[in-house]
Amino acid sequence: KRLILIGPPGSGKGTQSPIIKDEFCLCHLATGDMLRAAVAAKTPLGVKAKEAMDKGQLVSDDLVVGIIDEAIKKPSCQKGFILDGFPRTVVQAQKEKQGVKVDKVLNFAIDDAILEERITGRWIHPSSGRTYHTKFAPPKTPGVDDVTGEHLIQRKDDTAAVLKSRLDAFHKQTEPVISYYKQKGVVADLHAEKPPKEVTVEVEKVLS
Ligand code: AP5
Ligand code: ZN
């Protein structure tokens, strides 16, 4: 299966991805995670991406299309993939050759009002991508990853102020991507405001 996950910041894409990945044996390609790794490693790509990311703006189409083109060639992605956070603009949707042949687009539909609490309470384990939330999905020990015992961190862009720009970018640049795929008849709308397990059940229904 070739899947695309679209939704605003905090809608649950990164929370559902590992579950879908394990259940359907797909590779998970998250442009946000790849960009954050590049920023942390101070690679030329990371240096170029950092400024836009810190401000909550989108990184240039050519950079992200380049990342996906490269990553999607991996043998582990040949059976199918989950694109999490890509495409974010209609230009990206049109440029990526594999992403064009998509089976399903999962639309994480949710009201903006819920997202600030989700974003400001999020803690992540950087090396695995595991995500926690102080209220909705707390780790066993505060600030510590359940599996490795390593420290959790907060994302630099997870503030109420930067969230405003990220939401703005979503409504202006990414919502047209949903319309683009609706015309192709491949969009499934999810109730992303429900608890995580209920969202998983909806995803499973769509994919089975
Ligand atoms: P990216 O990393 O993709 O961030 P985003 O789209 O803003 O999405 P998030 O990761 O914030 O949200 P999510 O839906 O994964 O939420 P999660 O499941 O973690 O992108 C970051 C930046 O990189 C962009 O701003 C841009 O600069 C750049 N970028 C990336 N891709 C790009 C592209 N294609 N083009 C250009 N630029 C690009 O959940 C959030 C929290 O809520 C967690 O704490 C979780 O535990 C909790 N939670 C999840 N689901 C539920 C639920 N159902 N109920 C209650 N709590 C829940
Ligand atoms: Zn995410």
Automatic annotation (TrEMBL):
Which UniProt key words apply to this protein? Answer: Kinase, Nucleotide-binding, Transferase
What family classification does the UniProt entry report for this protein? Answer: Belongs to the adenylate kinase family.
What HAMAP family does this protein's entry cite?
Adenylate_kinase_Adk (MF_00235)
Function description: Catalyzes the reversible transfer of the terminal phosphate group between ATP and AMP. Plays an important role in cellular energy homeostasis and in adenine nucleotide metabolism.
Q: Name one GO molecular function term.
A: ATP binding
EC id: 2.7.4.3
User: Tell me, how does this one assemble?
Assistant: Monomer.
Q: Name the domain of life.
A: Eukaryota
> Which transformation does this protein catalyse, written as a reaction?
AMP + ATP = 2 ADP
Pfam families according to UniProt: ADK, ADK_lid
The record's section on InterPro entries has:
Adenyl_kin_sub, Adenylat/UMP-CMP_kin, Adenylat_kinase_CS, Adenylate_kinase_lid-dom, P-loop_NTPase
Q: Which SUPFAM superfamilies match?
A: P-loop containing nucleoside triphosphate hydrolases (SSF52540)
Residues forming the Adenylate kinase active site lid domain are 122-157
Protein name, per record: adenylate kinase
